[in-house]
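Researcher: For the record, we're logging two predictions in this thread. I'll number them. Prediction 1 follows.
Model: Prediction 1, sequence and structure:
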Amino acid sequence: MKKISTRSMTDVEFQVGDKVTFNPYGKAWECEVTDIETHPRTGRTMYSLRGEAITQTSGLSIEQSAWFEEYPALFRISGQEAILLEREGLDIPIASYNDGKFEEAEVQIRKIAQVIDKPLQSFVLGALEEAKGNSKQAKEHFDESLAMGCSAAKDRMDNVQCNVLLAFGTSPGVINTLLICDKDQVRDAVQHANKANLTLVGGFPSSYPGVHFDNESIYSPLSDRYRFGRFVTDINEGVLFYDLEPKRSASVSLG
């Protein structure tokens, strides 16, 4: 696991005029640094970028940064395969899946996958089964894809991940933080979330002993997204922390 420190991210890695690659969602955008500021809450160095994208970001979304972190997603496809799937219109349902619309998005993904090239079709179905926590089926699809000439399937077949998506909120009806972590990190993640006054309100898939999900309805596209290392670090350093809301109580008359 890469060690991430919000304090270390206060260092300036790039200068105005530097060419960098902005990659927040598995799709690369070539940009130039136009301004450098300090985030008022976290103290992180923030870079204003202009080019194929116009944005402001920390090093977490810049490929050349020591702190670059791939976008946390259950359904993972990047590089050339992502470009090919975008042409087929699969990028939209994949994004919906990663936002939490699992059943609806899966139907669309399988429908579109039926009409694309066979090697890429098997690659997509492998990524889908991996996202659902079905390691054996995922490896079988990646193996099929590799046999038909998709070289990217080799690494995926050898490194199938068993991830879970956890949804946290400041109250049962709120989701403001989504975490992608290995199934073996679930219990530790929940303990750290409790430190930050976050409550586990949902997750997918839900087959993890000792951890109860109130529901699997976790659609929340505007939530902050984390991987385990940065999630733990932000909580330990006080960046991701929510004050307890004052509890309402009956008024008491004194005299």
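Researcher: Logged. Prediction 2.
Model: Prediction 2, sequence and structure:
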Amino acid sequence: MVFETLRSSRRLAPLALLAVPLALWACTTAQDGRARPGIRPPAPGTYAVIEGRRREAAGDLDSALASFESAIAVNPELTVAYLGAGDIYRRKGNFQAAEEKYGQAAQLEPRNFDAQYLHGLSLHLLNRIAEAVRAYLRALAIRPYDVEANLNVATAYLQMGEPDQALVYGIRAVRMNGQSGPARANLGAIYAALDNHSAAVAEYQQAAELMELTPELLLNMADSLSRLGRHDEAINTLDQVIRIKPSAIAFERLGAAAFRMRDYETAIESFQQALSADRRHYPAMNGLAVCHLNEYLWSEQRDDKARQEAVRLMRESLRIEENQPRIVELLRRYN
């Protein structure tokens, strides 16, 4: 499971920054009305951007967007106007429009960190992961030690199934902010994908001390604990998940952990609870089928009812997900 910790906070304080040109412009005219040499007036559209930020701060997003768009119409090369419009579209959930605005800002100013980073973020939110990685890397070429950019590119690489590439950025994010729960949780997921479950558990445990416990964090921790053979701890963790938010996957994982501990009664009950939560959760069908196959084998193959139930469950599982070679083999053997 990937921790999709997309960090989207803006780093600039545009309203404060844009107030500087206004102050300069106020001093550019002498009392005789002639412009003083050496001080340039603010770029066309600057006032509209300032008004847009004011309206955005007041929560009037539609009016703010209109101000940013009017600034773009007046001055199509005003990067901050595109960033402002992109921010509004992103806040409204229109990630496609946000990506277009941030992309235009990035083209206007390739060395603008915010433009490159926010373009990457909007691409990431659109699930255009490979493009997001390229944009994040352009941002990191400008500011290599930005925590959010390192965290997000690590997440993106992990989503692409490239944990080796993710590792360097995940480690860097933690080194820069060791008190970030999401950064440590993400690094844990990277270690787990690399089959280094001892390191994964260490990161998950630190994340659990730094952030609100979530089902995703606890499920990942339980999975790595199980991979290490620490089944008692995995069961305790899964019990905690179920207390927070019962789900088919939590009950199924609990059933699997109980099965490994040879607590077959708890395993069967947990798999059944998983199917009660989600009738199409085929991993729970498989777990329950294996429990019934064990009953059949323990009866010295006399309990044919258990065998038939196992076969039924495996057939239903394969109807939901065909690509299960192990279940196909079990069905061939016991059908």
